[in-house]
Amino acid sequence: MKWLLAFLVVTLLVMQYRLWIGEGSMAEVTRLQRELEQQRMKNAALARENRQLLREVRSVKEGTDGVEAKARYDLGLIKEGETLFIFLNPEEADNQ
């Protein structure tokens, strides 16, 4: 009877170890759930960025307005007859 009781206690301890500490434990499941949520947030941000880039590509492909807007923003395009105004912050003007 002592051997059976000892065997049951040891079995219980081994099962508890696996439940709380070992592979597939509650702590590991919680950690993996946190990692999964973080990855989902990163994926959502990348999906938003992809949609924005797709809109830009479509805009550039569809006509000259998209190309012109891109050139104005990225390259500083100024059309003939337009006047460029540059506004400086007061702090930036003092440093120059």
UniProtKB/TrEMBL annotation:
GO cellular component: cell division site; cell septum; plasma membrane
UniProt record, GO biological process: FtsZ-dependent cytokinesis
Topology relative to the membrane: Single-pass type II membrane protein
Keywords: Cell cycle, Cell division, Cell inner membrane, Cell membrane, Coiled coil, Membrane, Transmembrane, Transmembrane helix
Residue ranges annotated as Cytoplasmic topological domain: 1-3
Coiled coil: 29-56
Quaternary structure and partners: Part of a complex composed of FtsB, FtsL and FtsQ.
Family: Belongs to the FtsB family.
Function: Essential cell division protein. May link together the upstream cell division proteins, which are predominantly cytoplasmic, with the downstream cell division proteins, which are predominantly periplasmic.
Protein name as catalogued: Cell division protein FtsB
Species whose genome carries this gene: Microbulbifer yueqingensis
